[in-house]
Automatic annotation (TrEMBL):
<dbReference type="Pfam" id="PF00106">
    <property type="entry name" value="adh_short"/>
</dbReference>
<dbReference type="InterPro" id="IPR002347">
    <property type="entry name" value="SDR_fam"/>
</dbReference>
<feature type="coiled-coil region">
    <location>
        <begin position="42"/>
        <end position="80"/>
    </location>
</feature>
<keyword id="KW-0175">Coiled coil</keyword>
<dbReference type="InterPro" id="IPR036291">
    <property type="entry name" value="NAD(P)-bd_dom_sf"/>
</dbReference>
<dbReference type="GO" id="GO:0016491">
    <property type="term" value="F:oxidoreductase activity"/>
</dbReference>
<protein>
    <submittedName>
        <fullName>Uncharacterized protein</fullName>
    </submittedName>
</protein>
<keyword id="KW-0560">Oxidoreductase</keyword>
Length: 324
């Protein structure tokens, strides 16, 4: 692949909590498992609880198998007993603002710290699908609901120590997206690659906006491109068939950049960057357009205004935008 997809095996305190949305499958499954193997407390936030339960069982089984194989290779005399991975699950449906808020409130009720939020869950649809809230499903699930979670959890991250992080799993597919106020909700046209690209473009642009406007720089906010990965995400879509021709990575290879962004001590305090192949890289000039960014944030905050924290301006430094 021509890329060094490596990340350090760091020792993570069991007191350090990570939320991984969509952690029951694909990239998110591997992110959650690898962080738990390092010692972290991981919460996978998923829509389907039976699949989440099965995923946690699979993580444990894979970990024990990997440990056994490693010990057999080195013929270790003092073989460590496998630990119980500290992974639990919470329910979330990103295609519903009410259900996303239910997840947010349930986590807040725990009154526990949050050190890293990995906004990983995403979907790609072959045809246009509208949510019950009236939004195109990729726009809402991939972008708007993750932004809503982020805005609510920023104060929790802020209180959780000097190394809190938000990692947005984006994609180079953002190059296919654009901010068109006349077609944000696919009112005029729909193309699955363009619409998916929009959701990832908006995710990256909001990352940059947040990195500048959040008042506490101790919380780093980054976005990552996992590469072309063979997952369930694009099965049955034209873009999945198209990208499938380009020797896609395994889910673990795709997870490497996200794991590095979430755990590597070298990324402590590094904010407002785009990470690809485990390295910081540049984005297009379109992503950095101040005019387009303002239009996007105006739209986003107005769309989410009903669900935003009442004290948002206490920790986000921004001018009045829309009705938010």
């Amino acid at each position: 692949m021509g890329a060094d997809l490596s990340y350090p095996q760091v020792e993570i305190s069991p007191e350090r909590t990570y939320i991984v949305t969509g952690g029951n499958t694909g990239i998110g499954f591997n992110v959650a498992k690898e962080i738990a193997k390092m010692g972290g407390h991981v919460i996978i936030a998923c829509r389907n609880m039976s699949k989440a339960e099965a995923a946690i069982k699979q993580m444990q089984e894979e970990y024990e198998k990997e440990l056994k194989e490693k010990q057999e290779r080195v013929q270790a005399s003092n073989r460590a007993e496998p630990k119980l991975l500290n992974v639990e699950m919470m329910e979330i449906d990103l295609a519903s603002f009410d259900k996303t808020m239910k997840f947010i409130e349930e986590f807040k009720e725990r009154d526990c710290p949050l050190h890293v939020l990995v906004c990983n869950a995403g979907l790609a649809t072959a045809s246009k699908v509208m949510t019950d809230d009236g939004y195109e499903i990729m726009l809402q699930s991939n972008y708007l609901s993750h932004l809503l979670i982020t805005l609510h959890f920023l104060p929790i991250l802020q209180k959780s120590g000097d190394d809190a992080r938000i990692v947005n799993v984006a994609s180079d597919a953002y190059h296919f997206g654009k901010f068109d106020p006349r077609n944000l909700n696919c009112e005029r046209s729909y193309g699955n690659l363009a619409t998916y690209g929009n959701s990832k473009l908006f995710q990256i642009m909001s990352t940059l906006w947040l990195s500048r406007h959040f008042k506490d720089t101790a919380v780093s906010i980054t976005s990552c491109h996992p590469g072309l990965v063979k997952t369930q995400l694009m099965q049955g879509t034209a873009m999945g068939r198209f990208f499938g021709k380009f020797n896609p990575r395994t889910p673990l290879e795709g997870a490497a950049t996200i794991i590095k962004a979430a755990t590597d001590p070298e990324f402590k305090g590094v904010t407002g960057v785009y990470i690809k192949d485990c390295k910081i890289t540049s984005t297009s000039s379109y992503v950095r357009s101040a005019e387009i960014e303002k239009q996007l944030i105006d739209y986003s905050l107005e769309t989410l205004s009903k669900y935003l924290p009442q004290n948002l301006k206490d920790y986000i430094d921004y001018e009045d935008q829309g009705s938010a």
